[in-house]
Amino acid sequence: MKVFYWSPHIDRVATIKAVINSAYSMNLYSKQKFIPYLINVAGEWDNYKKEIKKKNINIINITNSKIIKNNTKGFIKSRLVYIYIFFISFLPLLKLIKEKKPDYFIIHLITPVPLIINFLFNFNCKFILRISGYPKLKKLRLLFWKLVLKKIYYITCPTTSTKKLLISLKLADKKKISVLYDPIICSRDISKELNLDNKKIEFKNFFLSVGRLTKQKNFLFLIKCFKNICALKKNLKILILGEGEQRDKLKNLISKYNLQENIFLIGYKKNVFTYLKKAKGFILSSLWEDPGFVLVEAIYLNIPVISSDCPSGPKEIVGDDKGILFKSNLEKEFIDKFNYFENLEEKEIKKMKYKAKSFIKKFSIFRHYNILNKKILI
Fold first, then answer.
1. By the 8 A CB rule, do 320 and 303 touch?
2. Which runs of E-coded beta strand occur in 158-203?
3. Span 337-346, average pLDDT
4. Which of 116, 283, 287, 362 has the most C-beta neighbours closer than 10 Å?
5. Contact between 75 and 105 (Cβ < 8 Å)
């Protein structure tokens, strides 16, 4: 059976890894029952062709455009690209579905094109909406989903919180909505990354935070918190991995608070595991996450986690004593919880790490494939 994946992306988002690993899980475990294909709309998969080829995943190009690969930075430009993608891909995608007749079509990111095609036309193909991240359901999107999801075959959610939200909004029959955890953990890939990268890190005894330098990740808040913490703990260090539009703001705030010897903007790193495995702890300060890929990866490497209790994923992963949760965007709350963590005995930290690692088995590519195979792709 042919399974098509639709996931046009204009930035380095976690969904990229989820899509590749989902397709890869079919190649590993389905014994050719499912044949996965990635749809390349406008160059978004070009930078990953080497990895995709190694994992024996097929790519189908439906346009000659390379706009996503080459030039999408900036809020206004990215929105224009969304509109451009809609117009250049609609007819080619419709033609592709009619000619290639996929059995399943899994939709991630920039979803209106396939959702409208599914709504307007009748196919034997079963369309599956894969929710990526916590959905911001403003009035226009809510009205759109209420209309087009009437014909959707299935909806998968990355967390139980998101599932409850969609069911409460009555966007589709609740029997069509279920949790499908992202395929974040691929042990063989992580082992390769750890073995291949022997880079020495000059920092020791540091905390790590990872993500795009955007409002969502809330690094401005984190810097403000560490202004007070570092006043008492002069040798404390935190590394922030990532790039984004807030880099200059973050850099200026670090300088304003004289934290240049405490907080370091390291930039984007393809291999975060080199840093994770040597971190004293991982900090997630986000305003929203669903669920938080690096959060899961940190736990897999036995790194204790301090996370904001933001909607909607972290609580499921870190709650119930699997890590330290603080109320999102509250400075005093973070400082208190950080100091609490610093004073924990080693046996308490070990217990926390054990509980967390037991839980994140749900995010393995094998578990992901099992749910797809037994519950959704039937």
1. no
2. 177-179
3. 94
4. 283
5. no
Cα separation of 155 and 178, whole Å?
7
Instruction: Give the Å distances, CA to CA, from 218 to 10, 277, 377.
Output: 21, 23, 37
Residue type (1 letter), 188: R
User: What is the distance of C-alpha 71 from the center of its chain?
Assistant: 22
- The amino acid that residue 72 corresponds to is T
Helix (H) or strand (E) holding 162: helix 160-169
Supply the pTM of this predicted model.
Answer: 0.89
Distance CA 300, CA 363 (A): 10
Q: 């080497």: which residue's tokens?
A: 50
Q: What are 15-65's pLDDT values in tens digits?
A: 899 999 999 999 999 999 999 999 999 999 998 999 999 999 999 999 998
Within 8 A by CB and 6+ apart from 350, the residues are: none
- In whole angstroms, what is the distance from residue 300 CA to residue 294 CA? 10
Distances (CA, A) of 163 to 14, 48, 139: 19, 30, 19
Q: List Cβ neighbours of 77 (8 Å cut-off, separation of 6 or more).
A: 71
**The two three-digit tokens of residue 124, written as one number:** 């034997």
Return the HEC string of 355-376: HHHHHHHHHEHHHHHHHHHHHH
| Cα 326 to Cα 39: distance, rounded to the nearest angstrom | 40
Could you tell me what percentage of the chain is helix, strand and coil, using 3-state DSSP and rounding each to the nearest 5?
50, 15, 35
Cβ(266)–Cβ(255) under 8 Å? Answer: no
Q: Is the dihedral of CA 312, 318, 321, 326 positive or negative?
A: negative
